[in-house]
Specification:
This protein has 269 residues and is mainly α. The protein has 6 helices and 3 strands, in the order ααβαααββα.
């Protein structure tokens, strides 16, 4: 398997991930993948041949080795790296799908971590954290801890009695095991931190959007109230102007009636 191709493929997530996500990717490929490629594979090379028991009974060493190491530790780490990185590959596929849609529509449909990509990224963080915890628990149960003992006692058949079995380079293997466990715990902490950051950022953004909508609605209501108030003032002003006009027409009518009465009296006399 080409791990460098795997690294180049996952580096496409950096354009859409947060700063913590970029640090996580650097930790995975610098402190885990490179250590696995450069040192761990050589330390665990031919581990079954270097496993020895103080008896020459045919099949005894093979049975004891299979009992103490049901899965090779270095292969379990390789499986852990693949499973932990798979959710990020789904994010890469989602990004590629968005880019294809942007090319098809000839416009920018999504900028940064938002929309459906946000949900994909959130699910990838949860799945990555779950895989990290699951592999740590599995490692602890399979090997009875995170240290490699110098001596193991085996009494399984076809061994005639309890025999002592010895593992090569136990101190070196313990050092690398603890290093991989610590980096795995560091990745869990970073995933939880990034998960909290992404959720908190989204909740703050939603609260700000709701607040801006409320402010806009209150401004619109104030404008409506002002418009209604101005309409009432104009109506009152018009009514106030129209009343004195009616009074003036009444006075004119009374004057005309008085003049007609006076002229009729003068004509009679």
């Amino acid at each position: 398997m080409s791990w460098m191709f795997f690294r180049d493929l996952l580096s496409g997530v950096n354009n859409y991930s947060t700063g913590i996500g970029r640090i996580w990717l650097a930790v995975v490929f610098t402190f885990r993948l490179l250590v696995y490629l450069v040192a761990a594979e050589h330390v665990w090379k031919d581990e079954q041949k270097e496993f020895e028991c103080n008896i020459r009974q045919p099949g005894c060493e093979n049975v004891c080795f299979d009992y103490f190491f049901p899965i090779s530790q270095v292969r379990l780490w390789a499986l852990q790296l693949i499973m932990v990185s798979m959710p990020s590959l789904f994010v890469v596929l989602h990004v590629a799908y968005h880019e294809e849609r942007e090319k098809r529509h000839r416009k920018k449909l999504c900028v940064g971590l938002g929309g459906s990509l946000w949900y994909t990224y959130l699910i990838s963080l949860i799945v990555k954290t779950g895989f990290e915890i699951a592999f740590l628990v599995l490692f602890h149960k399979l090997y009875g801890g995170f240290s490699v003992p110098h001596l193991m006692k085996c009494n399984l058949k076809p061994c005639p009695h309890t025999v002592d079995c010895f593992i090569s380079k136990p101190t070196e293997k313990t050092t690398f095991t603890l290093f991989m466990v610590i980096t795995s715990c560091l990745c869990i902490v970073m995933n939880c931190t990034e998960l909290s950051f992404v959720v908190l950022k989204c909740s703050i953004k939603c609260c700000l959007q709701k607040y801006s909508k409320r402010c806009k609605s209150s401004v619109c209501e104030c404008c409506k109230l002002k418009y209604v108030g101005c309409g009432k003032i104009l109506q009152n002003h018009r009514s106030a102007i129209s009343i004195p006009q009616r009074g003036e027409t009444k006075l004119l009518c009374d004057k005309q009636e008085g003049e007609t009465k006076a002229t009729s009296l003068l004509s009679r006399t």
